[in-house]
Every structure is written in structure tokens, then in C-alpha cells.
Amino acid sequence: MVSPKWLVAWITVAIGLLPHSSSAQIPRAAAVARFIGGQTEERDEYQVGLISGIHRTGTGAIIISDRSRNTVRAFSGQGQLLWSLKSVGQGPGDISVPCCLAAAGAGSFWVGELGNRRWSKFTIAGNGAKFAESVKMPGVLEPPPEATGVVGASLQHVSRRSGPPGSRAISTVRLVDSKGRTVSERVVQHPTADSLVFVELSKRISGGSSRMRLVPPYAPQFLLAFSGSGSSARALSSQYEVEVFDAKGIRTARIRRSVAPIPVTRQETDSARAAYEQQATAYKAEEPPSIQIPSRKPPIVSLAFDRDGRLWIERAVAHRTNLRVADLFDQRGRWLATATWPTTVSHWTAATSGWSGFGTRVDSDDVVEVVTLRW
Q1: Are 345 and 360 within 8 A, CB to CB?
Q2: Of 159, 170, 171, 166, which is closest to residue 211 (Cα–Cα)?
Q3: What order do you get walking across the sheet with 345-353 strand by strand?
């Protein structure tokens, strides 16, 4: 299967009357184009696997961490390889299972390593990146943590922990200094269990039993996002109401919007049940409970901050819609624009600045490519 390098899909910034809009904007359109990877790429150093982070430096370089290939690579804005970190191990400067990237000031960046349970800082120098220091990852590592940047002189590290059935999950936000010491810590309580829907799978293992908690398809979820400056946003996906907080945890905005309900079609219901059954079978669950698929989709799909600190609120769309849609707000809750992009592209919001960004796309043969998004 051969694909052309430039696959054009028009992306529009739709303009409308939304809460807090203050002025009309010029409609924008942009194209999706292959950056690296994909079916046509024959050079091994330009192929990609499980992308775990995309970071744009102040000089225009694009740093990409690849969990399955155990590498961190930097490319020019035109997609030319600049350098690569691929020394696997436990020593200084080695990397193991890179899970995430974070800015570390001018010319530097952090790499989260699940294999070594640490964050390693590198400084870009000449035609490579020089190891600077490492700090131990605090908290739990499953699901993988995220670091959204440097607040003051400290690395912001976020980890999530689920409690026993019926209890609240919590997210812990820590600021960690260069020696790995926790400078400050605050806890974000997730909603109570009666606000969310979970399904618990269980199976027998040697010496006891094992349990796994799943969120059924289209069930309400607690959404939490952090910016590189320490601010955050949170919402229940079941309603379009998002609260925004500054780095001290003080609420700065509450964003509400009335949106038309999106029905879950029969085909989507059947696909959701099949996916759940497949997951239960893969887990080897004993007597997995049946699930109820809602008739309507939650209005919010995800929350994320971009490199400029704008909040992207992705909304649910109707079945067979070929575009994804997100409303953009500043941290005071003022509406800025509504953007769309192809459903085949996963948008890496943290790598978006101005009206350009990056995403990933997987074809029918499971070949991954990194693409550019230019509005």
C-alpha cells in the first residue's frame, strides 16, 4: 500500500456565537500532511511506533518520544532527523520506556522513563542532547504519570491512584526540585462513585484473585488536564461544564455551554459491546457483568491545554462524522475559536502553538505516521 506524502484534509476553524466570545474572527483552513513515518517511509530512523510524547522547542525542533522503539528523536520543522537518544539502560543519560516529555526551560527538556522510574533532563547542545540530571518519579506509575512543564524552578509531576471499589480516585500534583525532593503537593479528589460508572472484572490467579476496573463505553468520566504553567481544568464528561483553576488551585473560570444531544447509534452500540467482550476475554475474566450502553453520548470527550495555555474542549460528534471538533478557550474562560480536524488523526494538543500542531495517524495495516496540522 503506497500513500502520497501529502494527504490533504481541510480543517476549518468555525466561527459562531459562543459564551464569552468578544469579536468575530477570520475563518481559517489548513491541511494535514505527513511529517515522518507511514507506509512510504523506508528509512528505519524515520519510522515510528507507539508515540508517547511530542514536544516543540523554542528553536523550532520537534522532539518525539517513542515508547515501543525506546528512543527519543529530534527533527527539524521540515522533518529532517537532527539527533537521537537510544542508549537503553539504567546509567546516566540512558533511557528505558520513555512515557512522556516536558519542557524544562530554554534549550532543555525532561524525559519520563517508566523503566527507570525517573525523569531525566537533557540540554540541547550542537547536534545532540547532553544529559544534565535525573530525579526519581514520585507516586504511582500506573497509569503512566504526566509532567506538563516547569513551574518556577520545579518539575510538575501528576500521578493518579484509584482506591478500592466505592472509593474516590485521587490525582496528586507534585512540584519536584532538581534533587527529586517534593517542594509542594496538592491532591485533586475525583468525583464520588455515584457520579461515575465502572465495571469490575475479576479472575483467579495464583494465591488469590485479581480485579480490573473499566469505564464502559460512553459512560460519564472525570476529565482532568494540566497546563505547563500549573493551571488545570476539570469536568464530568456527562455535562458541558468545565472549571479552570490557577497553579494555586484557585478557580479562575467556569465554562458552560448548551449543546445538542448526540445519540448513540445501533451500530455504535454493537461495536461498544463487542469491544467490551473482547477486553473481558483478553483479561480472562470470570463471568464478566453485562453492561448498559447509554442512548446518548457524553457531550465532552477530552480536555487538554496547548503550548500557549489555551484550553481545548473536545466535543462528541455524530456517528460517521469525518471531523473531530473542539472549542478553544483562554484560562479566563473566554471563547477563542472552534477547530476541527479529521477523525483519523489523534491531536497532540501539548505540541500545538498558534495555529499549527502535530498529531498521529494509524492506517489499516497499523502503520503509524506523525502528521502536521496547520490551521
Answers
A1: yes
A2: 166
A3: 32-37, 368-374, 356-362, 345-353
* Summary count for the chain: helices (H), strands (E): 1, 28
Cβ contact 194:238 at 8 Å: no
Q: How far apart are CA 69 and CA 250, in angstroms?
A: 40
CA-derived radius of gyration, the chain: 21
Domain of residue 137: give its range. Answer: 11-190+221-262+297-374
Structural domains in the chain (count): 1
Residue 215 counted as domain residue: no
Residue partners of 93: CB distance under 8 A and separation at least 6: 85, 87, 120, 122, 131
What is the rounded distance in angstroms from the CA atom of residue 144 to the CA atom of residue 158? 9
Q: What does the DSSP 8-state code read for residue 238?
A: T
What are the two backbone dihedrals, phi and then psi, of residue 118, each rounded to the nearest 5 degrees?
-155, 165
Contact (CB, 8 A) for 319 and 296: no
pLDDT in tens, 76-131: 999 999 999 988 889 998 999 998 888 877 788 889 898 898 889 999 987 889 99
Helix (H) or strand (E) holding 251: strand 251-256
| Three-state secondary-structure class, residue 46 | helix
- Taking the C-alpha atoms of residue 344 and residue 58, their distance in angstroms, rounded to an integer, is 28
Q: What is the CATH number of the domain that holds 166?
A: 2.120.10.30
Neighbours of 353 (CB within 10 A): 12
Other residues' Cβ atoms within 10 Å of the Cβ of residue 277: 14
Q: What is the pLDDT of residues 296-315, one digit of tens each?
A: 999 999 999 999 999 999 99
CA gap 108, 131 in Å, rounded: 10
Question: Exposed e or buried b for every residue in 80-93, given b needs 16+ CB within 10 A?
Answer: eeebbbeeeeeeee
- Inter-CA distances, 366 with 14, 32, 50, 257, 281, Å: 31, 19, 11, 37, 22
Q: Give the whole-angstrom CA distance, residue 27 versus residue 187.
A: 40
